[in-house]
Amino acid sequence: MNDLFSGAPQGVTNMMKMVQEMQENMERVQKEVEATEFSSSVGGGTVEVVVNGEYEVTAVHISPEVVDPEDVEMLEDLIISATNESIRKASEAMKKGMEQAKGGLSIPGLF
């Protein structure tokens, strides 16, 4: 059997396998979160911004009633607010997913 960890003491072998499994879980979670879309709406649903897990804006929806040429600043503020909230949701999902993938394991210098 050509095991990557053959010849190492059993405890080290088990730890290395746990770390390898954790890294695989973290990669899987990262890909899942990156493929997920996070949306937030503000202004009573008049502005919605969608971002993906890579923090890229993928869509902006603006209700016509919120478009006021006399108050462009309000629309800008709504877009910023919805964008920031969507990014926060994506960031929290990534953080939560990584914590779950680590399974409580913390190795100084690695995680």
Explain the overall architecture.
With 111 residues, the protein is α+β, with helices and mostly antiparallel strands. It has one domain (10-102): Nucleoid-associated protein YbaB-like domain (Ybab, Chain: A, 2-Layer Sandwich), CATH 3.30.1310. 50% of the residues lie in helices and 16% in strands. It has 2 helices and 3 strands, in the order αβββα. It has helices at 10-34, 72-102; strands at residues 37-42, 47-52, 57-62. Strands 1-2-3 form a 3-stranded antiparallel sheet. It is rod-shaped. The model has no long low-confidence stretch (mean pLDDT 87).
**Structural class of the helices, strands and pairings?**
alpha+beta
Q: How much helix is in the residues?
A: 40-55%
Number of E-state strands = 3
**CATH class term:** Alpha Beta
Question: How much beta, percentage-wise?
Answer: 15-25%
Please state the second-level CATH architecture. Answer: 2-Layer Sandwich
At the third CATH level, what is the topology name? Ybab, Chain: A
Instruction: Count helical runs.
Output: 2
Domains, number: 1
Shape: rod-shaped
The CATH superfamily name is Nucleoid-associated protein YbaB-like domain
Mean pLDDT: 87
Strand order of the largest sheet: 1-2-3
Instruction: List low-pLDDT spans.
Output: none
The radius of gyration is 21 Å
Secondary-structure element order, as H and E?
Answer: HEEEH
**Main pleated-sheet profile:** 3 strands, antiparallel
First and last CA, distance: 31 Å
